[in-house]
Amino acid sequence: MALKSPPVLLGLLGRLSRRSFSTSKALASTPVTVRDALKQAIDEEMERDDKVFVLGEEVAQYDGAYKVTRGLWKKYGDKRVIDTPITEIGFAGIAVGAAFGGLKPICEFMTFNFSMQAIDHIINSAAKTFYMSAGAIPVPIVFRGPNGVAAGVGAQHSQCFGAWYGNCPGLKVLMPYSAEDAKGLLKAAIRDPDPVVFLEDELMYGVPFPMSDEAMSADFVLPIGKAKIERPGSHITLVCAGKATDTALQAANELAGNGIECEVINLRSIRPLDFDTIAQSVAKTHHLVTVEQGWPQSGIGAEICARVMESSAFFELDAPVWRVTGVDVPMPYTRSLEGLAVPRAPDVVAAVTAVLGNKIVEPIRQ
Amino acid sequence: MALKSGVSFIRFKRLSHGIRLLSTHTRPEISQNGGKNADFPGVKAPYVTEMKLLNEHSYDPIPIYRVIDNNGEVIERTEEPRIDNETLLNMYKTMVQLNQMDKILYESQRQGRISFYMTNYGEEGIHVGSAAALLPQDMVFAQYRELGVLLYRGMTVTEIINQCYGNHEDPGKGRQMPVHYGSKQRNIATLSSPLATQMPQAVGAAYAFKRAPNNERCVICYFGDGAASEGDAHAAFNFAATLQCPIILFCRNNGYAISTPTSEQYRGDGIAARGPALGLHTIRVDGTDALAVYRAVERAREIAIQNKPVLIEAMSYRVGHHSTSDDSSAYRPVEEIQKWTQEENPVQKLKLYIEGKGLWNSDTEKQFAKEARDIVLRTMQQAEKKKKPHWKEMLEDVYYDMPPHLQKQMNQMEKHLKKYKEHYPLDQFQSE
């Protein structure tokens, strides 16, 4: 799978420098979009296990609202790729029941904003039935779809559910960043015996990432609950997930120009949370900034701060931890404001500069 | 008028057809409104020129199917179900056992021995009639007032009482409120408190059955008239129909959702009227007549197994309070209840029927009622003495494999209990 033609290589290098990917082995790899990586994961798992099926609005004939399930209906037919009526409460309930009945459903929400219609099935049934049935009824199910901020879709279609679902025991919550994350984590989610909430980013679907030969293989599965160090560094730790990883990496790239080396930790999994990796990094850098697209209160960053406070990692800190989050308002529709309502690289740069400068001042109100 | 224009329309079409045959031009044929069927993607229906709005009185109410009268006499011989004597006795005995459990467990809640209970009075006919018409491989999704179904399917008095007491022999490991039963080996999905969530889930389970080769299983999903107002109910009806699932959606219309009477719960012709509208085979049945319920479910099963979903609305009356948290005298007169405990009593009706067949008499009644009462009392005394589940169960089954953070908590707790055991009532809990 090595690259054959120089133009492709040049193109890839160009993209690499633009997007500041850190992995060098990526050079010997194939560019794959997040969308295609997700499709690959579903396709391979459907091929591997005929209990796996997809249901949701527009997932079959229309190939999915965001084309993640492209071609799957043609390949697997009506029984395994099901277009449903427009009732999230209905098809999420159907998916939960099908999991009770021994199948492994992949339940697509056109966006996670719509999952609120079905949240009772996710929290009260999917997450708790294994426990409430005293271990008799496992619920192997994946709820997936785009989460968080898209572009120009207003307050009701732009929120991050990482903290919401991350709050609930019984669920596993994954947030892929790259194509490799998307494929390896989705395959792990489908194989997992517990219910998994899989939060994708609409704005990342079309972004190509280099994928290694290993990641292209049908056996490629990533462990759930293990973070990835996207970029090693010694001065400060940036913890992020999903699209926020992109923002953090951009900031790290910029800061590297000023001699500040950020260690960027892509969480991959919100629940279980790989706190060990964070703590080890903090022990090295003694500074921590979290980056997320969701709101600040009770968010992912808040959770990380709390865990630092409750552990010996606290004594490693040379400065208070800062959170860079989405602004604490419903998402503005105005494009200029929308862009400012979610963390941008300059926000992260500012936070890093402040924390490293040990400026104990009132943090910027997010 | 309509006929006349119809005739002229036909003439016109013939004429235009003739002209078209002669003509070299092709002109698209335009069908005319009036007297012809429309061809919209959403609906195929005739056009009319007379405007008419429909309301709840446009249709006759869906009739209520019954087999026996108040004296336990079969009304129409051909409708009498063929049920062997042993099954009939089993059905009746289940009703008696159910009544005894309700009586004693309700009292035990009043005495503070258990935290909660829900009685089943008035719906015994629904329980045994439907349960007897199903096969053991069929899957049951219950709401919470279907204890008779569970008993009939073989859940023992001991298992049920252990669940209510949440002791270490409770199949549910003491994790749920009383009455939240479940039994995997008897194909009974564990009850879930949120109302109506079992409905789309039942359809999903039926879908899983449908996918199995040579499927011979169906799902029955019980729900109340109040639950039918939840969005989940509509979703379940619509998905059962569109996914063509082997499911019986069984509404126990007992007249009340806690204190809300059906007159405030819905308008129109009850729950059954929604069936045909959503593409479901539908029947309304007298829920106080166990034999009618049996016949309806038996037939529904035959249809459902061919992947044609069925809706049954069984009419009954909730004789008891909603639960131990409710006092129904606040919202209904005592006289209203009497009719349903006397002439329309489902237990009485089936008793008269089997007595008529010479299968039962006052002696057997007396003897069995005593047995049924004794076993409940005895089991309750035993259940009370049994230890609580192992404290570790609190952390089990949250995930399929215990994650490290729970493992860590468990280890800490274990050490703590070892060190400070005298401060904890460990003797009340099951040990390893």
Automatic annotation (TrEMBL), chain A:
The gene is LOC112046964. Residues 32-207 form the Transketolase-like pyrimidine-binding domain. It comes from Bicyclus anynana (Squinting bush brown butterfly). The keyword Mitochondrion applies. SUPFAM superfamilies: Thiamin diphosphate-binding fold (THDP-binding) (SSF52518), TK C-terminal domain-like (SSF52922). Keywords: Metal-binding, Mitochondrion, Oxidoreductase, Potassium, Pyruvate, Thiamine pyrophosphate, Transit peptide. Its EC number is 1.2.4.1. This is Pyruvate dehydrogenase E1 component subunit beta. GO terms for molecular function: metal ion binding; pyruvate dehydrogenase (acetyl-transferring) activity. It catalyses: N(6)-[(R)-lipoyl]-L-lysyl-[protein] + pyruvate + H(+) = N(6)-[(R)-S(8)-acetyldihydrolipoyl]-L-lysyl-[protein] + CO2. One of its GO terms (biological process) is pyruvate decarboxylation to acetyl-CoA. InterPro entries: PDHB_mito-type, THDP-binding, Transketo_C/PFOR_II, Transketolase-like_Pyr-bd, Transketolase_C.
TrEMBL record, chain B:
SUPFAM superfamilies: Thiamin diphosphate-binding fold (THDP-binding). Belongs to the BCKDHA family. Its EC number is 1.2.4.4. This is 2-oxoisovalerate dehydrogenase subunit alpha. Its cofactor is thiamine diphosphate. InterPro entries: Alpha-ketoacid_DH_E1_comp, DH_E1, THDP-binding. Transmembrane segments: none annotated. PANTHER family: 2-OXOISOVALERATE DEHYDROGENASE SUBUNIT ALPHA, MITOCHONDRIAL (PTHR43380:SF1). The branched-chain alpha-keto dehydrogenase complex catalyzes the overall conversion of alpha-keto acids to acyl-CoA and CO(2). It contains multiple copies of three enzymatic components: branched-chain alpha-keto acid decarboxylase (E1), lipoamide acyltransferase (E2) and lipoamide dehydrogenase (E3). It catalyses: N(6)-[(R)-lipoyl]-L-lysyl-[protein] + 3-methyl-2-oxobutanoate + H(+) = N(6)-[(R)-S(8)-2-methylpropanoyldihydrolipoyl]-L-lysyl-[protein] + CO2. Residues 92-390 form the Dehydrogenase E1 component domain. It comes from Bicyclus anynana (Squinting bush brown butterfly). Gene3D superfamilies: 3.40.50.970. Keywords: Oxidoreductase, Thiamine pyrophosphate, Transit peptide.
